[in-house]
Amino acid sequence: MGGERLKIILSLTPPLLIIFTLFFGGIFYGFLQSLGYQPAIGKYEINFSAYYNVMFSERYAKLFWTGLGLNLWVSFASTFLAAVFALFGALAIRKTFFAKTICNFIYSLNLPMPHLVVAVGIIFVFSQSGLLARLASQIGLIGSPGDFPVLVKDKYGLGIILAYIWKEAAFFFIILMSVLQSLGENFEELAQSLGANRWQRFRYVILPLVMPNLFSASIIVFAFSFGAYEVPALLGVIYPQMLPVMAFEFFLNPDLNARSEGMALSIIIAIIVMILVVFYFWLTQAKIRKD
Amino acid sequence: MKIKLKFLTLTFISLFFSKLVFAETAPGFNSWDDVVKAADGGQVNVYMWGGSDAINGFVDDFYGVPLKEKYNITLNRVPLKGTVDAVNQVLSEKEAGVTGDNGNIDLIWINGENFWTLKQANLLYGPFAAGLPNSEFVAWDNPAVNLDFGRPVEGMESPWSSAQFHFMYDSARNNYDDMPRSYAELSNWIAENPGRFTYIRPGKGGFVGTRFVKQIFFELSGGHAQWVGPFNQELYDKWAPEVWKLLNSWEKDLWRGGETYPKDNAEMHSLFANGEVDLDFTQSPRGAGPTNTAGTTPPTSRAFAFYENMIGDFNYWAIPYNAPNKAAALVYANLVLEPELQAAQVQPANGFCCGWGISTAKVTDAAGKAAIAEAQNNLGDAAEDQDILAKALVSDIAAEYQDLIEADWEANVLLK
Amino acid sequence: MNNNLKKINIYAIYLGAIILILPLIAFFINAFSFRWFYPQVIPKELSLQAWVRLKLIPKPGQRTFEGFIELWASNPAVIKALLNSLSIGFLVTIVSIIIALPAARVLGLLNFRFKKLIIFIMVSPTILPPIAFVLGLNINFISWGFSGNYFGVCLVHLVPIMPYVVLTMTGIFANYNPDFEHQARTLGANKTRTFLLITLPAIAPGMVVAALFAFLVSWSQYLLTFLIGAGKVMTLPLLVFSTASSGNPALTAAISIIFIFPAILILFFTSKFVSGESGATSGFGKI
């Protein structure tokens, strides 16, 4: 028995070591810095003024709370919609039809696309002078770019949501496809033979079976979209601004006080994500137990 | 005793003279030959804003090649999203205790508040600028050169080029004669052309926008002269409300109703080129030339300036305190001041953005003078009349105004 | 009714596919044109200028075989970035799989105290945002000498990669039956042979998926490489980001095409592992 324990500990050590020293170590040191502890320039006092400044000071309060609202909205909307699209796509694509393999390929094409490229692509297609707008002007629907609706670089984060849906739907799609494949047609056929119609088959057979996978995947997707920097940096506006972009800009400010504030903001982001994930977990555990 | 005294006196006198005659070229180097020798076979890490591939290409071709061939130095050009990224890097290295020759950065393309941040924190190597052989061509006695945003340079950075703020328009859509020539006229123009104008938001990476707003201060307060010199809080507090009032009065007629603003040159050019707005900004003496060549503005774009209050300034190269290749950095800083290369900067065909870093009047040799003359004649028709530009030229003002304007603009105009 | 529903379904799929393909079309048009401004749909000026500017295609008149070789040998930024991205990606993928393998086996097959906690710790880098740890880590890396060099960038890439690799491979092992190993051992095979001939083939498809995830995560890292690399380690995402902010859409499009090309290749070759009978992705639900 002792040998087994040793084996477990040895096997788990390398990845845990990396995560502890680099990841948690980085967070810890960032936390210290956010409290004002910067020994290299002789600052040793510890206080929470950076946190207070970020959330409640006159200069930043409005930016912070609108940014937080935008963050929550973008993450919830994109995660939910991506899951919905992927689910219907995965279900619909099961049957064979003309050009199925090509469509399959195009849909999974987005999985290896880095987020940066998706963001750039969306700018090229959906901006007011983008490809869609130009097509619209060619067929006479609009005159100048100003007539085209604002879909990217807008204050509701539509462009950002679109970019996340683009990528995350592919992610959900892959997971769902493999689950549905392994499930096979048996359960559905059984339900059908028992007289259930399409909606009932979906609601009571398919949905519960794919839920566990969907839930764990959506936690990751939600957390990612909440804390990621690249996409909102390219597709966002300057007000309201998503929190990770704000944090990074603070950090890049040569004023060292601002850097503490940047660290503080990123710790705040991490804490909010933690709370939401734990809450989410608790919710889904409750739901699964109910079902 | 007497002999000893004589000996001592002689020693002191010769030491004194040697300090004069062999004054350090730059800290740690006794002569320019030492510098060139020390730099041989090494690398130089040049950190500069990378948002213009024309400038990038210029540096690679016009400096990279001679550095290698003449001095055996390899150029490593590091593109940045903003100069502040390099400043930040130096600050982080200082925080982590990196000293001596162990840093990452050799040279930063810098000026204004970024320069001041590093200088006042003692994070720069120098003074080195006067020790460069080509510094004889720099007009160091001119306050536009020896003051950077109102702060004394004191040899801690060496000039590269200059720029002057003015405007671009598309001759296919508008006429030169219809262009506004002051902020008062601009206000009318905006009201007559709703949705066709915007400006870059003053902020990090948007210093062109900050300049645009600063100039409003000059015009509304009746003159630029009172703004020169140290920061004047009262003067600022007196005129700032007027400026915000003006900017807010434009809002409903601005692009997107003033809800959002482009955050840098790139976004601005894109709006202009795609026909979303009709006016754009430029800092090059060649007006719309560089962007036309690069294809980021329509080939019909031309330049115009207001008749007054167009800010112009110099930009420089600075060396961080912990640069790993200080000798190579000095060679580079000297190379960019070479008259023929300065002339090449200004030539439209080479695609560079900006103007002279040296004073062309100080160049005396024939080859240099010929290159300069050719460049002056070649500015191209996408440029504004150089006389108009020269008449409107005013210097930039103390660095404190920059942060203040950026923060207050955000509070009073954007968030309103 | 059912038939009509089916038709709508299928047309919706076609529409979706067309929309998904539009950005790619925009990339290609942008990359091969000059001054493609609104309202042009078909570009007025087709040109290779973007590629010439990126120093990937020589200027007209020098487009011979030697011309290409000479140009690429001058180490243009794009080639440098491409090689860095590829090599870092391969390196961290291999390292992460080697590190993750024993841990995944233990997590997938055995049950022990704190198992749930350990899994949660392993997964935490995907939950907490990278910005939370890399800002603090940056200062430490500078003083340890890892900043601004290849090694430091590889090291920091491991952080976001480990969770994916561990998670995927744990899923494989959760569906894995160790009995075959026991049988082989009783038949006299030693540990190494058992591993090579029994275990490895069984987990290989899952390992491929894990490697795919790992490579892609490293391939698309921007923030980590930007901060830790300190500008000295240039990778493709950094180049894409800085070009995208520079306002020259043709250049951005050209670099983006290079950026996505290997990723699409990978998709091609591993599609059979991902699209169906993979225990890896279904293992997600069991955790």
Write the layout of secondary structure elements.
The complex is a heterotrimer of chains A (291), B (416) and C (287).
Chain A: H1 2-34, H2 49-56, H3 61-92, H4 100-109, H5 115-126, H6 131-138, H7 158-183, H8 186-193, H9 198-227, H10 230-235, H11 243-251, H12 256-290
Helix pairs in contact in A: 1-12, 2-3, 2-12, 3-7, 3-9, 5-7, 7-9, 8-9, 9-12, 11-12
Chain B: H1 2-21, H2 32-39, E1 43-49, H3 53-71, E2 74-80, H4 83-95, E3 107-110, H5 112-120, H6 143-146, E4 147-148, E5 151-152, E6 157-164, E7 166-170, H7 183-192, H8 207-220, H9 233-250, H10 265-273, E8 279-282, H11 289-294, E9 301-304, E10 310-318, H12 326-335, H13 339-346, H14 366-377, H15 386-392, E11 393-395, H16 399-414
Parallel strand pairs in B: 1-2, 1-3, 10-11
Antiparallel strand pairs in B: 3-10, 4-5, 6-10, 7-8, 7-9
Helix pairs in contact in B: 2-12, 4-5, 8-9, 8-16, 9-16, 13-14
Chain C: H1 2-31, H2 49-53, H3 65-73, H4 77-109, H5 115-127, H6 130-144, H7 150-174, H8 179-186, H9 191-219, H10 223-229, H11 236-244, H12 249-274, H13 279-282
Helix pairs in contact in C: 1-12, 4-7, 4-9, 4-11, 5-7, 6-10, 7-9, 7-10, 8-9, 9-12, 11-12
